[in-house]
Amino acid sequence: MEPIIAIRGLRKNYGQKQVLKGIDLDVYPGQIIGYIGPNGAGKSTTVKILIGLLSDFEGEVSMLGQDLRKDTLTVKSLVGYVPENAEIYEVLTPVEYLSFVGKLYGMDDALIEERANRMLQAFGLLENKDQRMDTFSKGMRQKVLITSGLLHDPQIVVLDEPLSGLDANAVIIVKEILSLLKKEGKTIFYCSHMMDVVEKVSDRIVLINEGSIVADGTFEQLKQAEADTLEKIFANLTGSQSLTNVADAFIHKNQP
Ligand SMILES: Nc1ncnc2c1ncn2[C@@H]1O[C@H](COP(=O)(O)OP(=O)(O)OP(=O)(O)O)[C@@H](O)[C@H]1O
């Protein structure tokens, strides 16, 4: 099977700082990849490259067989992106915002309305659909962002910490949405710090540390190689010192 996302020798620098140090990764159609790593590991940088927001990288990235550098527009039309936070146009209502997003993807009005209503209803936001979003809570805005990322029925869905601000019920809905998308054959690239969710929804976990992949496999494979929970696996492979000692040093003055 051909990979739907193929990343070869991906490097990215910000000034002198090398943030991605040669990432090689093949993602196959229908996989849910949990892309995890400590703060500053390079997850969002990878995501920004995949969705075509950053183009000054070294290496090769192809999505759906298209070279990202040569055909950014096609790739963008087939990929859905759900960010953690976005500059959402707060003076708009969800209906206005989603209609704007849908039109950018070339969708017709009837399809936008049908899909937007269905998704907003699932999130319990239908009664707020004509309300300006500057009156919304963080979680309500996040639900609109998730809806806008999935509105055009993309083949690949890239999510960067999408559960930020969501209540427990919405988290359950999003987890369910991810497994339904998988059943439809969509490919999901999911970045998160919520280890319990990653453990449950991902069928492959890729752990990145300081710009390099340090583990790649199913949760079962990582468990056999490292430890019995994803939290422990994460700590084993990325913690430079005992995390308990770090907490202790944070709270207590060093004893002479
Ligand atoms: N625009 C930028 N200019 C300079 N440095 C940047 C920029 N964006 C990110 N970096 C640096 O690149 C490194 C990787 O950042 P990135 O946002 O990809 O990490 P991350 O794994 O997503 O982290 P987090 O879990 O905290 O979101 C960090 O050291 C960060 O300071």
From TrEMBL:
<keyword id="KW-0547">Nucleotide-binding</keyword>
<dbReference type="InterPro" id="IPR027417">
    <property type="entry name" value="P-loop_NTPase"/>
</dbReference>
<dbReference type="InterPro" id="IPR003593">
    <property type="entry name" value="AAA+_ATPase"/>
</dbReference>
<protein>
    <submittedName>
        <fullName>ABC transporter ATP-binding protein</fullName>
    </submittedName>
</protein>
<dbReference type="Pfam" id="PF00005">
    <property type="entry name" value="ABC_tran"/>
</dbReference>
<keyword id="KW-0067">ATP-binding</keyword>
<dbReference type="GO" id="GO:0005524">
    <property type="term" value="F:ATP binding"/>
</dbReference>
<dbReference type="GO" id="GO:0016887">
    <property type="term" value="F:ATP hydrolysis activity"/>
</dbReference>
<dbReference type="InterPro" id="IPR003439">
    <property type="entry name" value="ABC_transporter-like_ATP-bd"/>
</dbReference>
<feature type="domain" description="ABC transporter">
    <location>
        <begin position="5"/>
        <end position="235"/>
    </location>
</feature>
